[in-house]
Write a structure and sequence with these properties.
By secondary structure, the chain is mostly helical. The chain has 5 helices and no strands. Keywords: Coiled coil, Membrane, Transmembrane, Transmembrane helix.
Amino acid sequence: MEELIGPLLVLFLILVVIGYLGYGLSWVATHYPILFWLGVAVLLVALSAYIYRRYQRKAELVRRADRSVGAAKIIQASARKTIGEVSRKRQEVINARKKVESIKRDSRGEANFHMLAAKHFESKQIADGYYRSMRGFAVSRDALAEQANEFGRHLKELTGARKGKSPRGKMADYVSSVKATASELRRTVDELRADVASLRTDVESYNDLTRNLKLHIRDTCGERGRRWYRELEERTRARKDS
């Protein structure tokens, strides 16, 4: 029983305030009707303005989200295109690696020196090209990831997460569809990120194979191979020092 005393006291005070407020409004309406109805009109205008602003803000968020969804589809299409390019480049690297492995396995001796040296030069040029492609794909990956994050920020604003509010009714259905778009976009960007990482591994493996081919020439092509190796190393050091 004692625990009810506090809530009952608060309720009593609220009722007293409401009573005095009602009495005051009634008195104003009786003695100053113009002032009373003017106050009511001001209150209604303020309430209407508040509702209108809420509606306008929601409509603006929807328009922004629609634009973001359109942008997200463009981002996803670009990401898919890049994924295809990365996949083709990976296959190209794998095929090139197999060729170098075959040459390294089947060719040795001074009789094959010129062919092996030419293949090493070609392989090094190819590896440099692969690294350039990989860096380009990494730039595309980062740009697409940032665009996906921007879309996520629009979605967060749309759902009212910053104010701890959840959408309801038709707005909830709309937000749900936008969330699905965001999830699909994130999966695509994650796939691109994984493919670029795999390409990096393939390119580094090919580059290691090119270095091994250089050692293969040194170790299996006699004095010509050793002299070629020394001169190549000297040129490499000179470039680094310059």
